[in-house]
Amino acid sequence: MYMAYGWPQAIPLLEPPSSLPSGRVVYVKVANHLLLVVAAGHLELWSASQHRVRLGMHVRDADSIKREGENLQAVWSPDSKTVAILTSSLYLHIYKVRFSGNKLLVGGKQLSGLSLASISLVYGEKAPLSDKNWVTSNFSCDSRSIILGLANGSLNLISWKGEFSESFEIGHSPQTTTDGEPKLPESTSFSPFVSDRGSHGIIDGHYYARSAVIHVDLSVLLRLLIVLYSDGRIALCSISKKGLKQAESIKSERWMTVDDAVCVSIASEQQVLAVGCRRGAVELYDLAESAIHLRTVSLYDWGYSVEDTGPVSCIDWTPDNSAFAVGWKCRGLTVWSVSGCRLMSTIRQIGMSSISSPMVKPNQDFKCEPLVGGTSFVHWDEYGYKLYAVEEGSLERVLAFSFGKCSISRGLSSTTYVRQVIYGEDRVLVVQSDESNDLKIIHLNLPVSYVSQNWPILHVVASKDGMYLAIAGLRGLILYDLRYKKWRVFGDVTQEQQIECKGLLWLGKIVVVCNFIQESNMYELLFFPRYHLDQSSLLLRKSLVGKPVVMDVFDDYLLVTYRPFDVHIFHVKISGEISPSSTPVLQLSTVRELSIMTAKSHPAAMSFIPDIPPRKEVPKKGNIHSSLDSLVIQPSRCLILRSNGELSLLDLDDGHERGLTDSVELFWVTSGQSEEKTNLIEEVSWLDYGCRGMQVWYPSPGADPYKQEDFLQ
């Protein structure tokens, strides 16, 4: 889950000389810690790491622009070494990006990994395209080729050396059989039905008149090419293992139609297709389930219509595909979660009634609203901490919005809920209630000595009592005591750099680090006491059998899951007190191993369901906490949230998995986690959040032991 904080940073762009056309920004992309901006008459390369520095640029002269036209479309190679640009006069320019190797110095200090770059033109020739068959789409690419769409509905491939292929079309118009039914080409998988959602997800078998290709998007991971036509047809095409190199290997597998579609974007990890529409809405489709319609996301429920925002102009998914940014042509930018939760919006929220839309008034003051003139480009950085956006028609700047991530039980990191922790690229925000029960945010700036060498922050977890934070960047580990406001770091930087943290857990007073060893390509668990970060104080080093995907902890039990679906459960036994004055001994024993064959998607999060005896067995007097600890037994069940949003319950005794619901983003286990259990919380086992909103699950006697209720009930 993402949350925006602070005012957006402005990255100033080069002001073109008066002799050159002002033009506009035509391309923005972030890759390998670099930001590339292509404008009508020049290119700029910026660092997209901790420090925003212009590393290089290339400015075209007035004669070149007059002779060959302004920059129109651009694409950056996956290795960040080559930029291909098509001009308005159909000239193809190919630029090479080379780094000097001389490290930059700022304030007398060397910036890690930054050096000046040169951008030089290595190829410039007229493209073999006719003026009548204009380029009408964006560019997309892989490591071998570039693909673009043309006005006559055909596609063209270009190698990174500037070699053009012959134009080709995706599929063919259906031929009519003797009984009058359309006959589809063999390469097209087709289901002849008409959706009950109107234009949403119609499989179109009765067409095909010629129309222009207006947008293309490529997923190398899924080996999938999406081609959008001006009449709303969308072709879902498979590509070969060799990528886009051969046109004959691109085959249409499915056709769908969204009448007013203007752009598309693929979430490869989630296997979701987002389609932006002229009516200002975004339609989401499940690519794993034959492209069925999932949901519609729009600002209509927030009181804004297409008259306020205009059509969708751009969509970009976060790196983990859990959220996406939407820019509109006339006004604003919004970030949504995959289940439709609005996470951030630049548009002022004036009213909540969708009947009376808060229209823009001519004399209304919008000095404090970013992107009020519309959004032409959006792009996330590699970690999801920065969202770069360009205002429609602007050549002055690129805006960088800062985002924090909520520290939740997901993947290899787990946390509790005494405090909510949000972490950004170089800071931590702790959300908690004060004496008057009002929420406040504690802003923690990390030690410069650590974050400057290990940017960005990747993992943050809070201890069970909420008093300690464990924080890890690219390397190393630091701890923070919230009570005494003190940091604990490795005294030996060499030891710090030996840790490449892939996950964090708190086990009482012990922090558990999932460490990746590059030399041997192995993973291990490191158990450090919170009072001392040093190899001499390491309590245990446990080698893992493979790359873990999910971890969780409850009481003295540790869960580690590997792909495809192997679950190992360990019991941790500690002898002695965990303090500097004693020498504790930690033993780790395997109590359960499960290897489950399943065709389901891999787990994104797992959590033990505590097995707490009935309330009548718990003593009513004395130390309730110690009594509960003595009664806690080995958990026999755990919740599984899969990457596609499926929530299920796994029996750890027999390996049986029971499906509960789908389209879930987050879940919270509440049963057995609080000493002060009252009323509802005593009965609730867990809560989940997704496209249906918040839902509560609680135990119930009878054949169906778990019932699901809407949160409002």
Set out the fold topology.
Blueprint: E1 2-4, E2 9-12, E3 25-31, E4 34-39, E5 42-47, E6 54-59, H1 62-68, E7 71-76, E8 82-87, E9 91-106, E10 109-126, E11 135-141, E12 145-150, E13 155-159, E14 175-176, E15 182-183, E16 213-219, E17 224-229, E18 233-238, E19 251-257, E20 261-267, E21 272-277, E22 282-286, E23 292-297, H2 306-309, E24 312-317, E25 323-328, E26 333-337, E27 342-345, E28 375-380, E29 386-391, E30 397-406, E31 420-423, E32 427-433, E33 439-445, H3 448-454, E34 459-462, E35 468-472, E36 478-481, E37 486-488, H4 493-497, E38 501-507, E39 510-517, E40 522-529, E41 540-543, E42 548-554, E43 557-562, E44 566-575, E45 585-595, E46 603-611, H5 624-631, E47 633-642, E48 647-651, E49 657-661, E50 664-669, H6 679-683, E51 686-690, E52 693-699, E53 706-710
Antiparallel strand pairs: 1-30, 2-30, 3-4, 4-5, 5-6, 7-8, 8-9, 9-10, 11-12, 12-13, 14-15, 16-17, 17-18, 18-19, 20-21, 21-22, 22-23, 24-25, 25-26, 26-27, 28-29, 29-30, 30-31, 31-32, 32-33, 34-35, 35-36, 36-37, 38-39, 39-40, 40-41, 42-43, 43-44, 44-45, 46-47, 47-48, 48-49, 50-51, 51-52, 52-53
Could you walk me through the main structural features you see in this protein, from its secondary elements to its overall organization?
By secondary structure, the protein is mainly β. It has a domain at 598-612 and 633-712. The chain has 6 helices and 53 strands. Strands 1, 2, 28, 29, 30, 31, 32 and 33 form an 8-stranded antiparallel β-sheet that branches. It has a 4-stranded antiparallel β-sheet with strand order 3-4-5-6, with no helix packed on it. The chain starts with a strand and ends with a strand. Residues 172-209, 353-357, 616-631 and 672-679 have low confidence and may be disordered. Pfam families: Beta-prop_RIC1_2nd (PF25440). One of its GO terms (biological process) is intracellular protein transport.
